Amino acid sequence: MRHWLWRAGALVAIAATVTACGSSSTGGGTQTQAQGHRGGTLVGEATDGPDSLDPAQANINLSQAFLRMTNDGLTALQKADGKAGTTLVADLATTLPTPTDGGRTYVFQLRKGIRYSTGAPVRASDVRFSLERLWKSGSPDIFFRGTGSIVGSAACDKQPTSCDLSKGIVADDAAGTVTFHLTAPQSDFLLRLASTFASVLPPSTAVKPPATEPLPSTGPYVLASFVPHRQVTWVRNPKFRQWSAQAQPDGSPDKIVLRLGVTGEAIATDLEHGSADFYGNDSLPADRLGELATRYAKQVRVVPTPATYWFDLNTAIPPFSDPNVRRALNFATDRAAIVKLWGGPAAAHASCQILPPNFPAYEEYCPYTANPAPDGNGPWSAPDMAQARALIAKSRFRGTSVKVWAEQADPQRQVALYMVGLLNQLGFKASVKTLSTSAYYGYIDNSSHKIQADFSGWTGSYPAASNFMVTNFKCSAFIPNDPGSYNLGEYCDHGVDAQMAQAQKLELTDQQAANALWTKIDREITDAAPFVIAFNPNNIVVSSSRVARTVYSSAGYSLWYLWQLR
Amino acid sequence: MLAGLVVLALVVALSLAAPLYAHWIAHTDAFAPNPNGTIVVHGQRVSVLQPGATGLGETPIGPTWTSRYLLGADGQGRDAFARVLYGGRISLTIGFLAAGITCLIALALGLAMGFFRGWFDAILARVLDLVWAFPVYLLAIALASATLAHGIPLGPLTIDSSSILLPTLIIALVSIPYVARPVRAEAMAVRSSEFVEAATASGASTWRLIVGELLPNVLDVVLVLAPFIVASNIIYESTLSYLSIGVQPPQASWGSLVSDGQDLLYTRPLVSILPGVMIVLTLMALYLVGDGVRDALKPGQREELPR
Questions:
Q1: Nearest by CB to A344, which of B51, B160, B268?
Q2: Which residues have C-beta within 8 Å of that of residue A56, sequence separation ≥ 6?
Q3: C-beta atoms surrounding A364 within 10 Å
């Protein structure tokens, strides 16, 4: 939903296409899609705009989806529909390097002849500049800051403005090589480099440019204009020459326009009437999905998404500092009701645990249900209000005030309203606070705002359990007063941390044993309940009748620039 | 004026009767989400949120024209009509309460400024000018946004950001200059009149002069303005709540209900339209009442209202 995390499995499996999370479709599926043509203007609409189009600052799905067509890093996930979209490939680098020095050194060879949209050549030293810029610009990135392992990154965490990675990233502009030195083997390092935060920019780029300023591009498009809350326009990058059809294929439309500030209702109507070709929101209002799915079935694809949506419960602030309250809320939550509010059983399915179905290490687990299966090894069936009330009765925080934060757009707001109603039913004084999508995560991620509860989620861009666990639930993923602190529940269990470290080590040698450990970790965190896990969504890809072919990666995002118009 | 009073009384009565309607007629809790709820309509049990045929989409039930879900449900499966009635309670409470606070503070300030004049008047007049200089909506939105997260801490007390006191105080504050300035002008005029000078010469105390001589003669200014201030306050409240920075859910006001229904405008337009109609009716009634009061107390005068 917000941040997309990248992670490799065992190194030997990095370049292999992952097999889980297959896509399905209703209406015009991949198989039945017609062939379109190159050219034309693709028009999208969204309720709220990108938070930033600077790779160092873009922190929500919408922004990152567009950065994938303008910018590149050394590696990338293949730009392709369905499962192929989860394959790791070399992008600005010629090949995916095999690590040496016990997994602590990676040497990349840059492709020759790639230029920025400014005409300047891409150089090896730009990689170091771009990664140091993450610290210097106060990026919300968490792939390299905090949990990173590049030599020098720990010092950068302490002194971000004077970050120096010269010992961890050795660039040779003449030879076109970039050598990374890590403090310890990191099984997912190549996938971290595929995140949009690792996009390569020239050293002429300001550390903190104005949000609307077009930055140099390497991809097939360049930002033409960005008027916040109104419209964003991208046009073809005249300097782009396709170097890899897998990593960065040439785009289809000549121009892409994203209109902003359009209500969900208006977006649905515009998609039906053909005045918009795609939507940039997480979902559309639930009351319109039924009509779209029946009257415009050929324009709708329902694609499983490797994602889990939940309510973070801040374990450091009352009332959720009390495990009884957190567990009570888990028992009381009617996940079927939330699924309805999200758009119905075809749009999502109820869950109690972090990992989504079909993920490695996923084993169905739900201790927070009426009539649970033995050891909790079964699905959620119904809320258990009696258990919830009994737990609440043990807490001294009953009756306290709770604010639940959510994005302003529906259905997120509707889901938050449900939780507020439930908290009030349990005897709390709850209210909902909403923010626009572009401001939301920057606000709630920052612990100085003392958020008690929020509606959030995670899209795992490739199927590996650590993808979800490390960034959201490791102790170091909580960074006080930082806009890139993803551990919103401020959950910290050093025992679980040690198990995560062990599982990551095992991934290098024994994926099966690693998965077994991740399964255990999933259960332990679920039992501690720093959240109320709500559901796993499906992505509802809706296009206008003008669109001949849609492209949706199983990594959890649309590749709009590859959509073809009739 | 009579028509205005009748409509206003009707709206107030309906709003006050909201709990009775919800409990005895609609048999519903207007604040509890009810997405899994079902009701019997014409002998058939139906879902309050009706699922799409393909399992995709959920549409709130439309008007049943029966006692339950008379005008349909909102996105949470709650009775839309019951919520409009409850919304009226909050909108009217804020409108009248904020107007009361505005009038009291403005009356005190205007009287003091008009009586004491000099540096006291000069300083306060500039402060009022400063507030006056800001467009009312901009100022109200800025204040509401600034206090949205943490409310207003007042020493040991905190006005919670979800309390209706917060929008009430913000609205009251931004409206003060619009009452205080005319009161001050009137007080200055009265202060210079012969009967006040006579009272001063006879040794009347400052308090006696303000309360006994000035107040009765400037009160009609406030009485004439009051209905218009209430009307303006209802619009401010609706605007702030529509923008999600006024009344906070699960409480409902007409403004927040218009916002709630916005994403149902295509399938269930009544959820948005009905609170909008109530706002229009109430404002019309208040303006009629205000015109009547003005004609009675200050014939021929047009008051300057907040922009």
A1: B51
A2: A130, A133, A134, A137, A139, A141, A197
A3: 15
* Average pLDDT of every residue of chain B: 89
User: Please, what's the b/e burial string for A399-432 (b: 16 or more CB within 10 A of its CB; e: otherwise)?
Assistant: ebbbbbbbbbbbbbbbbbbbbbbbbbbbebebbb
- Does B72 have pLDDT greater than 70? yes
Chain A contact probe: residue of B47, B49, B58 with most A CBs at under 10 A:
B58
> Which stretches of chain A score pLDDT less than 50?
1, 3-31
The two structure tokens encoding residue B302: 């047009």
Q: How far apart are CA B119 and CA B285, in angstroms?
A: 41
Banded model confidence at residue B54, pLDDT cuts 50, 70, 90: confident
pLDDT of the residue at A65: 92
What is the per-residue pLDDT for A35?
Answer: 78
DSSP-assigned letters across all residues of A420-465: HHHHHHTT-EEEEEEE-HHHHHHHHT-GGG---EEEEEEEESSS-T
Cα distance between residue B24 and residue B26, in whole Å: 6
Cβ atoms A457, A408 nearer than 8 A: no
Give ipTM to 2 decimals.
0.85
At the second CATH level, the architecture of B85-258 is Orthogonal Bundle (1.10)
DSSP string of B182-235, one letter each residue: HHHHHHHHHHTSHHHHHHHHTT--HHHIIIIIIHHHHHHHHHHHHHHHHHHHHH
| Closest approach of A318 to chain B, Cα-based (Å) | 15
**Residue B49's closest chain A neighbor by CA?**
A340
Instruction: Choose the weakest-confidence range: A513-522, B54-63, B196-205.
Output: B196-205
pTM of the model: 0.85
- Tell which residue, A528, A473, A472, has the closest CA to residue A321: A528
Distance CA B181, CA A432 (A): 38
What pLDDT shows up at residue B131? 86
Q: Is the peptide bond before B182 cis (omega within 30 degrees of 0)?
A: no
Q: Measured between alpha carbons, how far is B207 from B200 in angstroms, rounded to an integer?
A: 11
Q: Determine whether B113 is exposed, middle or buried from the number of CB atoms within 10 Å of its CB (0-12, 13-18, 19+).
A: buried
Q: Residues 409..448 of A with a Cβ closer than 8 Å to B: which?
A: 410, 414, 417-418, 420-422, 424-425, 429-434
Q: What is the pLDDT of residues B25-37, one digit of tens each?
A: 999 999 999 999 9
Interface test with A, best of B34, B50, B54, B244 (most A CBs within 10 A): B54
Handedness of CA A130, A134, A140, A143 (dihedral sign): positive
Q: Where are the domains of chain B?
A: 85-258
CB contact under 8 A, B54 and A290: yes
Six-digit token string for A3: 């941040």
- Return the closest-CA partner of residue A521 out of A311, A362, A326, A367: A362
Which tokens hold the place of A331?
A: 């028992």
Q: Are B201 and B276 in contact (CB under 8 A)?
A: no
Phi, psi of B304 (to 5 degrees): -85, 125
Number of residues that make up chain A: 566
Residue B269 structure tokens: 């337009």
Is the Cβ pair B32, A433 closer than 8 Å?
A: no
Coil, strand or helix at A302:
strand
For B80, residues 6+ apart whose C-beta sits below 8 A from its C-beta are B60, B69, B71, B72, B73, B74, B261, B268, B270, B271, B274
